[in-house]
Automatic annotation (TrEMBL):
Gene3D superfamilies: 1.20.1050.10, Glutaredoxin. This is Glutathione S-transferase. Residues 86-198 form the GST C-terminal domain. It comes from the Bacteria. It comes from Bradyrhizobium centrolobii. Keywords: Transferase. GO terms for molecular function: transferase activity.
């Protein structure tokens, strides 16, 4: 049985959404970060960073939401959450799968903290560039790879939902609003939102 370690109102949302989309049976293991449960020695064996989400699947254990998305999509190809390794779309899938943690999240932090980072040294370029590039990609739609919904939509959709809809840290754009609405219309997203709310 796959075990997903999570905490309400946390970054666990994307992993919950992934598991709900996958249709795979899984057990949610509440890890209450308000009480420090993520720092317990047993949990640190699963994720030494002491963060949720984390996942165990038999002898495999990992943390980081995008890594969890990649693992489940590849380990269980029947979920159809990733193009096959031989599919040319695989390259763009991987790029967008990791775009959220490597570009969207740093851009959000840059906006929130108002830290000026030279675009030549920031791995994400600039917040404006991140959201301009993402807008151009989403205008083609309906999903980041076109017609196929994938785990990359879970990482990108979670990032935009957080930044635009929930916390209004990033200004709304028509392409973002339409994409977020498509994500929200998915039954798995709706179930994940209820679960993540606690």
């Amino acid at each position: 049985m796959i075990k997903l370690y999570w905490s309400p109102r946390s970054r666990s949302f994307s992993a919950i959404w992934l598991m709900e989309e996958s249709g795979l049976p899984y057990e949610r293991v509440l890890t209450d970060i308000t009480t420090g449960a993520q720092k317990a020695p047993d949990f640190l064996k699963i994720n030494p960073m002491g963060k949720v989400p984390a996942l165990c699947d038999g002898d495999a254990a990992l943390g980081e939401a995008a890594a969890i998305c990649a693992y489940i999509a590849d380990r269980y190809p029947e979920t159809k959450l990733a193009p096959a390794v031989t599919d040319p779309r695989r390259a763009r899938y991987l790029q967008w799968l990791f775009f959220s943690p490597s570009c969207i999240e740093p851009a959000i932090i840059q906006i929130f903290t108002r830290i000026e980072v030279p675009t030549s040294t920031a791995a994400w370029g600039s917040a404006a560039q991140v959201f301009d590039v993402l807008e151009a990609a989403l205008e083609k739609g309906p999903w980041i790879l076109g017609d196929q919904f994938s785990a990359a939509d879970i990482t990108v959709g979670s990032g935009l939902n957080f930044a635009v809809r929930l916390f209004k840290m990033v200004p709304s754009r028509p392409a973002f609003d339409a994409y977020i609405a498509r994500c929200m219309a998915r039954p798995a997203f709706q179930r994940a939102e209820k679960i993540a709310a606690g």
